[in-house]
């Protein structure tokens, strides 16, 4: 309220109000309690041996948007990697099929639907698409818990890529899809000299305790990298 009373702080008040607009449901928790909920969730996700994480983290400073937008590149990469995963984990008696579910966003819903139709017809730059069915389903994230889990993973990845924060990242990165010990499910699109864990692990086999919990059943080349 003190911000509101000072005219010269009007824009700051407006921004502050915007920043806190989404937190109304959580004001009964202290900041430490909120952080511990997020950490607890990330710990649980890290233990989901059945789950595989696919992500494309684009540093827009190093991105050339003349051919496609960052959003379109990320979508094409995810489709390609998920398709490769489904194909590689299928067998002649059991073709694995997958479906993509998105947070509903009017600006991307139509574009991603059109893109997916095009991928079904012509494939992505990297692969034909035979195992991902349908165009993406768009749901209300506030009603759909798995979308919130995907958001949590995105948050952890972003905080790591932008600020180097490892606490949440180390928990959820265990679930990144791997092939022969190399992380193929998560990519950091940035300067080639980047030495972050994602870039390092994308290039060479992984050693270390962090990754012992993860296994990958991918058995064929993922050419999307
Ligand atoms: Zn990196």
Q: How would you characterize the overall build of this protein?
A:
This protein has 225 residues and is mainly alpha-helical. It has one domain. The chain has eight helices and six strands, in the order αααβαβαβααβββα. It has helices at residues 2-5, 10-19, 31-46, 70-88, 106-122, 145-163, 167-172, 197-203, and strands at residues 55-58, 101-103, 137-139, 178-179, 182-183, 186-189. The strands form three sheets. Strands 1-6 form a two-stranded parallel sheet. A hairpin with a 2-residue loop joins strand 4 (178-179) and strand 5 (182-183). It is globular. Mean pLDDT is 86; it is low at 206-225. The structure holds zinc ion. Zinc ion binds next to helix 8.
Counting H and I runs of at least 4 residues, what is the number of helices? 8
Strand order of the largest sheet: 1-6
* Helix fraction by DSSP (H/I, runs of at least 4): 40-55%
Based on Cα principal axes, name the global outline. Answer: globular
Class computed from helices, strands and strand pairing: mainly alpha
Distance separating the two termini: 51 Å
- Overall mean confidence score, pLDDT: 86
**Strand-residue proportion:** 5-15%
Describe the largest sheet: 2 strands, parallel
Radius of gyration: 20 Å
Give the cofactors and ligands: zinc ion
Order of helices and strands: HHHEHEHEHHEEEH
Which stretches are low in confidence, meaning pLDDT under 50 for 5 or more residues running? 206-225
Number of domain units: 1
Number of strands: 6
């Amino acid at each position: 309220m003190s911000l509101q009373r000072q005219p010269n702080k009007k824009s700051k008040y407006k921004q502050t109000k915007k920043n806190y607009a989404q937190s109304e449901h959580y004001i009964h928790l202290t900041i430490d309690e909120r952080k511990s909920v997020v950490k607890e969730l990330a710990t649980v996700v890290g233990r989901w041996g059945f789950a595989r994480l696919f992500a494309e983290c684009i540093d827009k400073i190093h991105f050339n948007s003349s051919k496609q937008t960052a959003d379109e590149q990320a979508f094409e990469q995810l489709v390609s990697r998920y398709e490769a995963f489904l194909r590689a984990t299928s067998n002649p008696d059991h073709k694995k099929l997958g479906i993509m579910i998105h947070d509903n966003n009017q600006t991307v819903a139509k574009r991603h639907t059109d893109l997916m139709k095009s991928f079904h017809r012509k494939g992505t730059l990297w692969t034909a698409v035979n195992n991902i069915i349908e165009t993406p389903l768009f749901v209300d994230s506030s009603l759909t818990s798995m979308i919130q889990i995907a958001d949590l993973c995105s948050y952890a990845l972003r905080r790591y890529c932008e600020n180097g924060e490892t606490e949440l990242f180390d928990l959820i990165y265990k679930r990144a899809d791997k092939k022969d010990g190399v992380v193929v499910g998560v990519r950091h699109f940035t300067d080639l000299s980047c030495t972050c864990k994602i870039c390092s692990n994308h290039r060479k086999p992984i050693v270390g305790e962090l990754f012992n919990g993860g296994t990958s059943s991918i058995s064929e080349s993922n050419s999307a990298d």
